[in-house]
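Per your request, structure below.
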């Protein structure tokens, strides 16, 4: 194993890296490209206007000569690379350097590791006890993406005094911050005394306890908070974090006391922490609740403040949505608006901007506008019966664990243009809330399909910002100059735009100036931004939905470049142009829905009457959505010739070992997959499997890139086991874009097992990165209860899994995949890990699994685990956790199967949880058989 860097080494690396590494890639690439363009300026141009020099571009390398503009940066690249990676990693002279992005990535990784490990030594030098220094270092490593290194550090120090306790706390920090498993993190924290938690990890422990959403968890979080605040040696920033979490817990008096105490230590606080304290005043020093005059109607406007200031909106596009909603409410000429903090004046101003042809008669009533904060409305002072149109992104959880749904009990919601982005908010309480207040008008089709699969009536409205033109005049032909706006584009996209036009202006919707701007000023900023777009720009190119749609509504030609082609946010919203039928239809439909409902609200009708009207007018739209959900896939599935693939494998199959002694009905059939990458790994798993089996085994191994000599060596290593090797080298599944980075295509071959083993009714599959401690014969007898397979549930829901699976597909393919999976699998069903499976091969054949689902893999780039989940979903037997125990999450006992999921493998050169079990098994096997032949 690699030793930890020494203190002098770490500090030296930190000093050097901190000066240069942060901007090294951008500076080096830019300088190298500039130098190359200058050197090649006299030749013919390639398609980018630069002559292609094969010598300079060979293998993607850039040569920068001494005296050129880029040379100083290449020297930095060379010097830092030799220091970080060793003198042999780069040439002896900077003059010989060829820029290599992969080498730069290695340098960045080495810098991150050095910076992470240096935290430990720095904290020890500062006088921290080892356990505290360790947890601080683990936290820093997680922030830098060094999850395996963070665990390795904690494991390496476990034998020191208090090392086991520090390890447990460190595991909790990793699980919470890097793996986003607050519930599992709390299982670790719960093993530790509160006084220790309050010293080592008070913020993380509080957060994990809050994630339970139980009275007991909240009390435990508050107890940890009290201990942390009682310690004058505790970091003042911890007090700020504690105060915010106490607000979310509803313990505002305690929060106010902690916030006041933190302010006495203001000199110790960062600017960001001071801002966080100021943000909390809204809840720790609230304005008194208002009583409405008789006859006044309370109306909520969505706003974006919350106790977790880092999760509050910093996107002016949110205020563009609120402006669009206000433009719909202000259409009624008779309405008189009032409201605190300038809300009434703002609404009256917007009312005066409404285009004459869109103004509506009636609404002769006083409306009191109040802010309803999307992510934390429970903390708002709201009058009863506050009618609120709920729209847009939902939602940003406070401190990543508490969602603001259901809304405040005084809110009467009408859902239009609603988008669910974080599926964590959809617990059963929230689903019941949506059912009670539906049907739900959704901004995108993915949200529609998601809610329908959860038993919530839903329909498609599109985006509220398509109605933004209501408060702007027509764009006059010829308005604007020749400026093209590049709005929140990635640097490469912005450069392409700049290269193609004479004048380009960079615009940002996202920025810290919007985080504390407030609702009134935020809406005014939105008005100014849209006026600017309409009057100054010839056209726009953007990655932002709330630039693309409102600008299109205002008549500005706008091109959308989504960050991900299959992003759920754009499902049903692509292809909009000024005055296109799609945009006009969406806009008019939203206006009609809101006008009808709002007329009843302003007339003072009962909630029952308003809900009945909403159900009536949206019923056809819900029916349309249900029909669409059930429709066949629009994306054609690619042909995959199962029979030809099976025939090719069987033609090369080899039977080795004592097959003549196999007694059908008494033997247990086991399947595994391997290739050249796992040729020394699978034998270790197999040795543990054979050692602990209570009866005879027969093994079926799908292989790629392994030699006959290897097959013979493996069979000789287990002379009592009949083995059949099934070479799958010639099978092509197309581009498996979702192949997990530490997995190879060899695992795809098990999708053919039902057809390859057509004489068997059952087989048990075990991954190669395992240690089998229990009796696999017992596992193979698992009762399936009519299901096609047994597997262990993962932490991820089917809905979230398929949402992520579509991100890199085309918009149509992504929409199809998500819709098909929403129709097939009810919301709430969890995915399963396919590393250990008990398979009913007869059932899989009857369902034509290989024929129906391998084509989905080729069409959508799915990996093998995706395919099994697409097929079975919740239609499976639950495999007890002991048969697929994950050391990164679980406490490992005796028996069962230890499965080293994820990238932290026990054969690598850093410690991993429970890695000693695998290493001991490997030592025993290799002492007997050595390493495999090539």
């Amino acid at each position: 194993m690699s030793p930890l860097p020494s203190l002098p080494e770490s500090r030296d690396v930190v000093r050097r890296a901190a000066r240069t590494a942060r901007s090294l890639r951008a500076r080096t690439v830019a300088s190298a490209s500039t130098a190359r363009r200058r050197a090649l300026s006299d030749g013919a141009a390639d398609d980018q206007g630069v002559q292609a020099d094969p010598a300079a571009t060979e293998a993607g390398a850039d040569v920068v000569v001494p005296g050129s503009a880029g040379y100083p940066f290449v020297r930095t690249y060379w010097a830092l690379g030799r220091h970080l990676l060793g003198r042999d990693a780069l040439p002896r002279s900077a003059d010989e350097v060829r820029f290599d992005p992969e080498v730069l990535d290695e340098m960045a990784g080495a810098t991150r590791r050095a910076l992470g490990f240096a935290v430990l030594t720095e904290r020890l030098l500062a006088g921290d006890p080892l356990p505290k220094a360790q947890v601080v270092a683990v936290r820093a490593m997680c922030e830098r993406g060094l999850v395996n290194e963070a665990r390795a550090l904690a494991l390496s120090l476990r034998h020191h005094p208090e090392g086991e306790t520090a390890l447990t706390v460190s595991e909790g920090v990793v699980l919470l911050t890097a793996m986003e498993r607050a519930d599992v993190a709390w299982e670790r924290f719960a093993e530790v005394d509160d006084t220790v938690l309050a010293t080592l990890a008070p913020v993380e422990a509080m957060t994990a306890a809050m994630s339970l959403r139980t009275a007991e968890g909240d009390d435990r979080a508050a107890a940890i908070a009290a201990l942390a605040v009682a310690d004058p040696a505790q970091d003042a920033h911890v007090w700020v974090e504690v105060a915010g979490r106490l607000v979310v817990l509803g313990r505002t008096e305690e929060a106010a006391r902690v916030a006041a105490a933190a302010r006495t230590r203001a000199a110790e606080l960062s600017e960001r922490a001071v801002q966080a304290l100021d943000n909390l005043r809204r809840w720790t020093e609230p304005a008194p609740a208002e009583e409405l005059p008789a006859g006044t109607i309370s109306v909520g406007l969505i706003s974006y403040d919350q106790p977790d200031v880092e999760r509050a909106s910093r996107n002016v596009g949110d205020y563009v949505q609120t402006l669009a909603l206000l433009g719909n409410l202000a259409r009624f000429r008779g309405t008189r608006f009032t409201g605190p903090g300038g809300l009434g004046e703002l609404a009256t101003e917007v009312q005066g901007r409404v285009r004459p042809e869109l103004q509506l008669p009636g609404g002769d009533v006083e409306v009191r506008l109040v802010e309803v904060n999307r992510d934390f409305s429970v903390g708002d002072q709201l009058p009863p019966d506050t009618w609120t149109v709920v729209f847009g992104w939902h939602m940003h959880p406070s401190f990543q664990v508490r969602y603001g749904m259901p809304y405040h009990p005084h809110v009467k919601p009408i859902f239009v243009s609603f988008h669910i982005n974080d599926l964590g908010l959809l617990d059963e309480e929230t689903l019941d809330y949506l059912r009670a207040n539906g049907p739900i008008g959704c901004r995108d089709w993915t949200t529609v399909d998601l809610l329908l699969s959860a038993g919530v009536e839903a329909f498609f409205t599109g985006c509220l910002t398509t109605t933004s033109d209501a408060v702007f005049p027509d764009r006059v032909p010829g308005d604007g100059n020749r400026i093209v706006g590049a709005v929140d584009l990635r640097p490469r996209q912005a450069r392409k735009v700049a290269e193609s036009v004479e004048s380009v202006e960079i615009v940002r919707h996202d920025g810290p100036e919007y985080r504390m701007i407030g609702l009134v000023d935020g809406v005014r900023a939105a008005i100014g931004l849209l006026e600017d777009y309409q009057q100054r720009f010839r056209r726009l190119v953007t990655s932002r939905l709330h630039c693309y749609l409102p600008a299109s509504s205002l008549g500005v030609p706008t091109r959308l470049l989504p960050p991900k082609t299959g992003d759920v946010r754009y499902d049903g919203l692509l292809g909009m142009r000024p005055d296109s039928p799609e945009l006009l239809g969406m806009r008019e439909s939203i206006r009609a829905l809101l006008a009808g409902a709002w007329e009843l609200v302003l007339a003072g009708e009962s909630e029952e009457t308003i809900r009945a009207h909403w159900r009536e007018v949206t019923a056809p739209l819900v029916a349309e959505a249900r029909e669409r959900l059930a429709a066949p896939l629009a994306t054609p599935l690619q042909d995959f010739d199962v029979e030809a693939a099976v025939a090719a494998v069987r033609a090369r199959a080899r039977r080795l070992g004592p097959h003549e002694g196999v007694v059908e009905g008494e033997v247990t059939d086991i399947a595994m997959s391997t290739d050249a990458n796992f040729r020394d790994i699978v034998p270790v798993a197999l040795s543990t499997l054979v050692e602990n089996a209570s009866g005879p085994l027969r093994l079926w191994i799908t292989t790629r890139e392994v030699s006959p000599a290897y097959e013979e060596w493996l069979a000789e290593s287990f002379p009592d086991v009949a083995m059949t090797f099934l070479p799958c080298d010639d099978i092509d599944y197309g581009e498996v874009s979702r192949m997990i980075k530490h997995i190879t295509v060899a695992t795809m071959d098990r999708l053919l097992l039902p057809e390859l083993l057509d004489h068997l009714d059952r087989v048990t599959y075990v991954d190669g990165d395992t240690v089998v401690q229990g009796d696999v014969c017992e596992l193979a007898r698992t009762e399936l209860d009519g299901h096609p397979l047994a597997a262990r549930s993962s932490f991820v829901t089917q809905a979230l899994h398929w949402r992520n699976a579509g991100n890199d597909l085309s918009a149509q393919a992504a929409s199809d995949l998500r819709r098909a999976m929403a129709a097939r699998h009810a919301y709430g069903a969890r995915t399963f890990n396919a590393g250990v499976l008990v398979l009913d091969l007869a059932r899989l054949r009857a369902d034509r699994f290989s024929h129906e689902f391998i084509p989905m893999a080729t069409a959508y780039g799915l990996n093998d685990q995706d395919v099994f989940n697409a097929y079975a979903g919740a239609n499976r037997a639950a495999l007890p956790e002991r048969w697929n125990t994950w050391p990164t999450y679980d406490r490992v006992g005796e028996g069962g199967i230890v499965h080293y999921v994820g990238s932290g493998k026990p054969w690598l050169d850093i410690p991993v949880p429970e890695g000693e079990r695998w290493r001991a098994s490997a030592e025993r096997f290799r002492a007997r058989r050595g390493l495999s032949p090539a």
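Residues 857 and 867 are 7 Å apart (CA to CA).

Regards,
D.
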